[in-house]
Amino acid sequence: MFDPVIAPSGTLLGLLQRGRGDGTLHALTAPRPEALAALNACVLHDPRHDWQVENRSLYYARLYLDLNGELDEIEAHLFDAEDILDTDESRTGLALAVLGHLASYGRRDALALLRRYAARGSNWAWALDELALRDDDAGLRALAAPVLARFPADPEGEAELAAAVRDAFEPRPWRLWAEDPRSSIATRVRGAQEAGSFDRWQRQMRPSGPRPGWSVRAVFEWAQQGIERGAALHVPAARCLTAVAGPEDRPEIIDAARHGDDGARCTALRYLADSHDPDVLDLIEAAQAAGSRLVVDAAVDAFERMRSVAAVERARRWAHRPDALGQAAGRVLACLGGVQDSELVLGALREAVRGDGPDAPTLYTLVDGAGRLGIACAAPVLRHVYRETASSHLRGRTARALAATDPSFPAGFAVECLWDCEETTREVAARHAETGDARVVDQLRRLAADPAEEAEVQTAVRSRIGPDTTAA
User: Fold this and answer.
1) DSSP type of residue 308
2) pLDDT at 51
3) 221 near 256, Cβ under 8 Å?
4) pLDDT tens sequence across 50-94
5) Which of 48, 102, 360, 469 minimizes the number of CB atoms within 10 Å of its CB?
6) Which DSSP letter does residue 45 get?
7) What pTM does this model have?
């Protein structure tokens, strides 16, 4: 999947792609065709950089409801000929998740689309998972025959069926089908369930990797073999060292951290950092100066895991370095530093935004640190990150930092956050948004009554409104 192209933050499309609350508020006041066009563009071309940590489906589904939006374009997208050619779930996953939410809100057209796609579409498993949460037993039973028809009745087809049953996110349809009165269906599904269970048992009985009794050298060799195969194994290898290494092995591990091949060096650095070895900080600095890219990344990661006083003191010395270790030092201080480190954390935050933009991965930790330390001077740069980042996950963390640093937050960004795509951001807004704005009170009431809303958000809402629905 290619990285999505994100429109400027000041446009309706850019706001909706980011999942900002202002996107909903602007869409509701824009001409309806324009708003629906922008909404469909987002749903049909997933704007998220990381769908595993960013939410959009409920946000878009609610906007479809508010706009009384038709589903014609979603239908055309799902059943386009491209569905046969491009079977990557990222092409249709967001649209299917939106349909799932719409079905839970009572949109029968969304439920019908999910049923049709589960029977005919390439990403049928996702559609089936959505239906497992929303459809009735009769609707799911009607899908048994078309779904099973996807798997030929030969050994290869039965193996694929067993894998599909084993890996299903929602088991409800398969359990229903295992009890289907049609023996041809029930027999196949029960057989697939048994085969999947047997496969899991076999994999548990054939573990790969280090065994008890391995030497330190054997663990290092295993880590290097992983690198040669394209798999980074130094993290599990370091855990193995914890089990097999004794005090007498320390010289060998220190030497590996200085002079070993990449697998041994990465493993040794991780092990020494986790065990708070007194020499590890010097070894990490040496790795930054003369290590491969893989070794440098492992050294930086090992340093950031440390929680000792010595690591914090070294971070204060390294924070001004213009390299990866200097960036890591800023993150360590953001997590563990005290008020006296506020200037260093603020400097790291400003430099990250200036050098790498509002989506830099390092910002997640630095934004949290600005909020944790209550750095009021960070509010302007935090507001910039909030507006411009394409990551709704980062924006939510920025909102929490603004709540701790920016006196204007309750009457400003907190209001739009009530419509944000991330439930954690809506929770922050529910606790902080000023209720002098009538929109705030109305949205709090809506969130309190919406069965699709997360429990944490509703708990925050109830802390602001009483039984008479008067905002606190």
Assistant:
1) S
2) 86
3) no
4) 888 999 999 999 999 999 999 999 999 999 999 999 989 999 999
5) 469
6) S
7) 0.90
